[in-house]
């Protein structure tokens, strides 16, 4: 392979095992395992909150070298109850990851998370550093108030004014000073139709601003009512509660990652997750390599980001 050749996804692969794990609180979490049983264990954490796993995420790992568990977090994907906000916090999810590790029966595993998945990966690794063999983060989101305001109040609004106009349209003008709070009312309305329309607007805003260049398939996926309902309700639910973390907590606690080998992959023009925070994490966690991808936004599927992610999982496949 020449130095200039971009790595692409591994061939499609089907799970060799799947099931539903009862994690308590009325929640059942869908999980699947792919790759080769007994090879290097890994867990993949999807974005959102409220996203889901998909077949492409399986393809970030060499199936001959890895045994990967993927799962849909509480309330989304194939997990049940769908779009539920009850007993659904960052720390419930951290506990679920541990339940899944014990289900697999391994001592530690590589953890890969992107966007919100990077937030959850950091929270898990800082809580259970002894359970993490390596940590791969894409589109680092440290969940500070400044990051939330940048994306949902003022910042990205200046770069995508026509898309921002559509995002604020469902919200009365007098409530636009707190878009997350205003959407909370809509997404928890007693009227299901109001919930759905708000969910589609919230989710489309993200789908249309996460890539450097427009990606029509993202707009249609994120505009799907069923997908949008869990994505928007859960994302808003987490963000209005600051994900049950103190402002700046993940960066302050980066010292807990000391000794964990890792990789940080971030697009220069990542709109939801400004590169500054990935850079600060890089400085606080010298055990991780830092790949700043020029000509890329936020999405896993952007060529430069995908290339660096697969190089990272290949490097750690030992």
From TrEMBL:
Q: Which family does it belong to?
A: Belongs to the peptidase S33 family.
Query: Its principal location?
Result: cytoplasm
Q: What is its EC number?
A: 3.4.11.5
Query: Looking at its record, which EC class is this enzyme?
Result: hydrolase
Query: Top-down, what is the taxonomic lineage of the species of origin?
Result: Bacteria, Pseudomonadati, Pseudomonadota, Alphaproteobacteria, Hyphomicrobiales
- Location in the cell: Cytoplasm
Q: What is this protein called?
A: Proline iminopeptidase
Is Lyase one of the keywords UniProt gives this record?
Answer: no
The protein's superkingdom reads Bacteria
Origin organism of this chain?
A: Agrobacterium arsenijevicii
Q: Which keywords appear in this protein's UniProt record, sorted alphabetically?
A: Aminopeptidase, Cytoplasm, Hydrolase, Protease
Catalytic reaction list? Release of N-terminal proline from a peptide
Give start and end of each AB hydrolase-1 domain: 43-299
InterPro entries given for it? AB_hydrolase_1, AB_hydrolase_fold, Peptidase_S33, Pro_iminopeptidase
The family database entries (Pfam families) matched by this protein are listed as: Abhydrolase_1 (PF00561)
């Amino acid at each position: 392979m020449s130095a200039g050749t971009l790595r692409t996804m591994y061939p499609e692969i089907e799970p060799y095992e799947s099931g539903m794990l009862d994690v308590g609180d009325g929640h059942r979490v869908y999980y699947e395992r792919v790759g080769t049983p007994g090879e290097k264990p890994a867990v993949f954490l999807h974005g959102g909150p409220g996203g889901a796993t998909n077949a492409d995420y399986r393809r970030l790992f060499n199936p001959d070298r890895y045994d990967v568990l993927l799962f849909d977090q509480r309330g989304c994907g194939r997990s049940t109850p769908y779009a539920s906000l009850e007993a659904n916090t960052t720390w419930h999810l951290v506990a679920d990851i541990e339940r899944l590790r014990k289900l697999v029966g391994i001592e530690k595993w590589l953890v890969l998370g992107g966007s919100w998945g990077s937030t959850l990966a950091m929270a898990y690794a800082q809580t259970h550093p002894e359970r993490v063999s390596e940590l791969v983060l894409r589109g680092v989101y440290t969940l500070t108030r400044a990051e939330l305001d940048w994306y949902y109040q003022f910042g990205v609004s200046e770069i995508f004014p026509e898309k921002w106009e559509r995002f604020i349209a469902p919200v009365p003008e007098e409530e636009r000073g707190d878009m997350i709070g205003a959407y909370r009312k809509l997404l928890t309305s007693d009227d299901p139709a109001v919930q759905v329309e708000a969910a589609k607007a919230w989710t489309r805003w993200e789908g249309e601003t996460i890539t450097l260049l427009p990606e029509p398939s993202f707009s249609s996926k994120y505009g799907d009512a069923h997908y949008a309902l869990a994505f928007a309700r859960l994302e808003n639910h987490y963000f209005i509660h600051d994900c049950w973390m103190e402002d700046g907590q993940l960066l302050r606690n980066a010292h807990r990652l000391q000794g964990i080998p890792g990789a940080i992959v971030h697009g220069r023009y990542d709109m939801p997750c400004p590169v500054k925070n990935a850079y600060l994490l890089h400085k606080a966690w010298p055990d991780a390599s830092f790949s700043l991808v020029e000509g890329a936004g936020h999405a896993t599927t952007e060529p430069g980001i995908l290339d660096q992610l697969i190089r990272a999982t290949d490097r750690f496949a030992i």
